[in-house]
Design brief:
Subcellular location (chain B): Cell membrane
Catalytic activity (chain B): a quinol + 2 Fe(III)-[cytochrome c](out) = a quinone + 2 Fe(II)-[cytochrome c](out) + 2 H(+)(out)
Strand content of chain A: 5-15%
Oligomer: heterodimer
Order of helices and strands of chain A: HHEHEEHHHHHHEHHHEEHHHHEEHHH
Number of helices of chain B: 12
Largest sheet of chain A: 2 strands, antiparallel
Number of helices of chain A: 19
Order of helices and strands of chain B: HHHHHHHHHEEHHH
CATH architecture of the largest domain in chain A: Up-down Bundle
Enzyme class (chain B): translocase
CATH architecture of one domain in chain B: Orthogonal Bundle
Strand order of the largest sheet of chain A: 1-4
Subunit structure (chain B): The cytochrome bc1 complex is composed of a cytochrome b (QcrB), the Rieske iron-sulfur protein (QcrA) and a diheme cytochrome c (QcrC) subunit.
CATH topology of one domain in chain B: Cytochrome Bc1 Complex, Chain D, domain 2
Helix content of chain A: 55-70%
CATH superfamily of the largest domain in chain A: Cytochrome Bc1 Complex, Chain C
Number of domains of chain A: 3
Largest interface: A-B, 76 and 63 residues
EC number (chain B): 7.1.1.8
Distance between the termini of chain A: 64 Å
Structural class of chain B: mainly alpha
Strand order of the largest sheet of chain B: 1-2
Number of strands of chain A: 8
Largest sheet of chain B: 2 strands, antiparallel
Chain lengths: 547, 269
């Protein structure tokens, strides 16, 4: 193909080139894609199932877009009131918005409509879950380190935007459940001091619910947010290509290479096949289990509300924040400050931001400016792993709070007791999780150290001549030794000297002291087990064989 | 005999003899005591009240007081009416098994005839809602759509959109409505059992009650269809999220592991 510019399509020897080649020639002559393809098609990707979590998110996003386009063909984003006379008899004669009526039509009168709707919604559930799990994989393996910090932020933004796209999406059918969710949001907006009321009137075009929010949410849901997400997604993938993929440590894997299979043809086939598998699993879910049965919920009316009203899981932690918050409020000069709603509204972004800014805190503490393409084993970064586990535990505690009524009815407990558990747990569980996780990581580090120095327990018991029983330990192979000892161990940073280079007394800044303190916490004596040195290894393996 | 005589000085021997004696005495009394004769001169109604009172003294009086006046352990039953009795006893909530936040539904202890007798006795203590007849609670010909609207306006706050139930404070709860008979739904609305507010005729006319019963029968009963597949308990996003994580993402991760494990083999050179 590279000679195509000098070769007419007929070829020099008079034979016609195959059709595929001619098409490729034609396209290359106009798009110049050959160079791009040559540079990228042989890109190597390492093999590990956890590297495919992001793919699950990518493919479910594509599935959501495809099914979403189909749904827009039949959905009427309008809040005009109509009387229902469609196929669903138990709703006959009920007044409802056109949005709700058209969703009923999609579910009962459009061919394949219900299946597509359910694929769309299950796809969203899986999409968000896959993004979160993918993010956790990146977090726990330290894949966010230089040069990937920006891409980490892109991914984080995708998660947040995904949450809000989901929120605007499940608000569109204008059923009683989603309407309650929108009302919840309105309440949160109203709780903002001073501007809350104005914001709410601006958002809803007047008094809640008005007739505007469905068309507005529709534009946001199908155009604005997915548009931004698509852009971010492309940038995210370009950066993945540009940085090359990270890999787990192992023999022959360095920061300068990638060991794996080429994109073309191996990963093309794998990824293409995996797309259809993801599509298949989500379609099977949609065919087996119902999701958001809006026909059973009824149309939204502000005077109606149901118990058991929760948002989709990815918004569940915000529900938990609201449910566990005591209903505090302050009255100032005739104005009410609803702290019971406003404080959760402020904590909501903080919970998310905590995980987003972590990479920058860590790189500040380590002061490490090198590039990292070899992943960390989570145990070798105990503080990071403990922080991530604590964050997840907080998320979980809040999810329990968000579903406190279902916990109460299904486990025969008092909802008050659960709420109090969550209130205490909000503060206590992350701390406990942090401590426990760190201990576990250190324990695993000790075991790694033991395994390196003393070999693997073989399970063979040997009896010595004087009657003692010992277990035979097999020394590890070179590859295993490498995997267990290749990681870099940071040393704690000391705060700068009290006198500068000229011997003049200088003041240590707060940041400097904090950084030294954090570094001590990260890499001090109690926070990592020194990995065995070559000398230690040689001393123990030479001479007195088994210990 | 040797065995028996060997044990006659056993410390429990006296107890065994006592139990034996009691059993014999009781048995003889039961055999020879004059049987109760029904009072032929009373009307069926007062007979039912009489019988109900006897049942009441045995099963209910310890908490509700000997005359239904109530005690510290149970509310007064004066004026609750036969509808309340039919609901509480007919669903097994009464007699209560143990004190607690709320009396749960359980297998009923009294037959319908006994329940009616209890109801007649309680109704005689003071006027109250009367147990409905079948044409009152039958959902025949009622408006399902209207019932849905009424249900969402008046009941869904506690019982959930489709009657799956929900939590109340301090361990109390609004029970699931699936499988509750139309009669008991009607009586519950009439009398407002336990934590439920009552919806008497003046608040919700008979016709509307029938609409609600019809709605529950169509949408929230064992026979109602679920066009979208498994209902997942009908509990909404919490159950859906759990299903999505466990079965959706779980299956996809299993597939990912499978795909990653099947790698192309590099040719050995």
């Amino acid at each position: 193909m590279s000679t195509s510019s000098t070769n007419p399509a007929g070829g020099t020897d008079g034979r016609k080139a195959p059709a595929g080649e001619r098409v490729a020639d034609w396209a290359d002559g106009r798009l110049g894609i050959y160079g791009l393809a040559k540079a990228n098609m042989r890109k190597i990707f390492p093999d590990h199932w956890s590297f495919m979590l992001g793919e699950i998110a990518l493919y479910s996003f594509i599935i959501i877009i495809l099914t979403g386009v189909y749904l827009t063909l039949f959905f009427h984003p309008s809040m005009n009131e109509v009387e229902y006379h469609g196929s669903y008899v138990p709703m006959h004669g009920i007044l409802m918005s056109e949005a709700y009526a058209s969703t009923l039509d999609i579910s009962f009168d459009v061919r394949g409509g219900l299946l597509i709707r359910q694929i769309h919604h299950w796809g969203a559930i899986v999409f968000l879950a896959a993004m979160l799990v993918h993010m956790m994989r990146v977090f726990f393996t330290g894949a966010f380190r230089k040069p990937r910090e920006i891409n980490w932020l892109f991914g984080f933004l995708l998660l947040v935007l995904g949450m809000f796209t989901g929120f605007t999406g499940y608000s569109l059918p204008d059923d009683l459940l989603s309407g309650t969710g929108v009302r919840f949001m309105e309440g949160a907006v109203l709780s903002v001091p001073i501007v809350g009321t104005y914001l709410s009137f601006f958002l809803f075009g007047g008094e809640f619910p008005g007739t505007d929010f469905v068309p507005r949410f529709f534009s946001i849901h199908v155009l604005l947010l997915p548009g931004i997400m698509l852009g971010l997604l492309v940038a995210h993938l370009i950066l993945v290509f540009y940085h090359k993929h990270t890999q787990f440590p192992g023999a022959g894997k360095t920061n300068k290479n990638v060991v794996g299979m080429p994109l073309m043809p191996v990963y093309m086939a794998k990824a293409g096949g995996f797309f259809f598998l993801v599509f298949g699993v989500i379609s099977a879910m949609a065919a087996i289990a119902t999701i958001n049965p809006i026909w059973a919920l009824g149309p939204y009316r502000p005077d109606q509300v149901s118990t058991g009203a929760q948002p989709d899981w990815y918004m569940g932690f915000s529900e938990g924040l609201i449910r566990i918050m005591p209903g505090w409020e302050i009255n100032l000069w005739g104005h009410t400050l609803v702290l019971g709603v406003f404080i959760p509204l402020m904590i909501f972004p903080l919970v998310l931001a905590a995980i987003a800014v972590y990479p920058f805190i860590e790189s500040w503490v380590t002061g490490d400016k090198r590039e990292h393409h070899i992943l960390d084993r989570p145990r070798n970064a105990p503080t990071r792993t403990a922080f991530g586990a604590a964050w997840i535990s907080l998320y979980w505690v809040l999810l329990i709070g968000g579903g406190n009524d279902l916990w109460a009815t299904h486990f025969h407990m008092s909802i008050n007791a659960i709420t109090w558990f969550v209130r205490v747990g909000f503060f206590a569980v992350p701390v406990l999780t942090f401590i426990v996780t760190k201990r576990i990581c250190l324990g695993l580090q000790r075991r790694d150290r033991d395994t390196v120095l003393h070999g693997r327990e073989s399970g063979i018991i040997k009896r010595l001549p004087h009657g003692e029983f010992v277990e035979v330990h097999e020394p590890l192979g070179q590859e295993q030794l490498h995997a267990l000892t290749q990681h870099h161990q940071y040393q704690p940073i000391e705060a700068g000297p009290v006198v500068d280079e000229n011997g003049v007394e200088r003041k240590r800044t707060m940041a400097e002291k904090l950084r030294a303190k954090l570094s001590q916490g990260y890499y001090g004596q109690d926070s990592q087990i020194p990995k065995p040195t070559v000398e230690e290894y040689q001393e123990i393996t030479s001479g007195h064989g088994h210990h | 005999m040797k065995k028996l005589s060997a044990r006659r000085r056993h410390p429990l021997a006296a107890l065994v003899v006592l139990l034996f004696a009691l059993a014999v005495t009781g048995g003889l009394y039961a055999a020879f005591a004059p049987a109760d004769k029904a009072q032929a001169d009373t009307t069926a109604q007062s007979l039912a009240i009489e019988e109900g009172k006897k049942l009441y003294s045995v099963g209910c009086a310890s908490c509700h007081g000997t005359g239904g006046q109530g005690t510290s352990d149970g509310p007064s039953l004066v004026g609750v009416g036969s509808a309340a009795v039919d609901f509480q006893v007919g669903t097994g909530r009464m007699p209560a098994q143990q004190p607690g936040a709320q009396m749960p539904k359980k297998p009923k202890i009294y037959t319908q005839a006994e329940t009616d007798q209890l109801g007649a006795y309680i109704a005689s203590l003071g006027a109250g809602p009367i147990k409905p007849t079948e044409d009152q609670y039958s959902p025949e010909g009622a408006n399902v759509a209207k019932g849905g609207e009424l249900f969402r306006t008046n009941c869904a706050q506690c019982h959930n959109f489709t009657g799956k139930g929900g939590a109340l404070t301090g361990g109390k709860y609004a029970p699931e409505l699936d499988g509750v008979t139309p009669k008991h739904i009607y009586e519950a609305m009439q009398t407002g059992p336990q934590n439920m507010p009552s919806f008497p005729e003046s608040v919700m006319p008979e016709k509307n009650k029938q609409d609600i019963i019809a709605y529950l029968g169509t949408v929230a009963s064992g026979e109602s269809e679920s066009p979208g597949g498994l209902e997942l308990g009908g509990l909404g996003p919490v159950a859906e999220g759990l299903f999505g994580w466990v079965f959706g993402l779980g299956a996809l991760i299993a597939v990912a592991i499978w795909v990653a494990a099947r790698t192309a083999k590099a040719k050995k050179s």
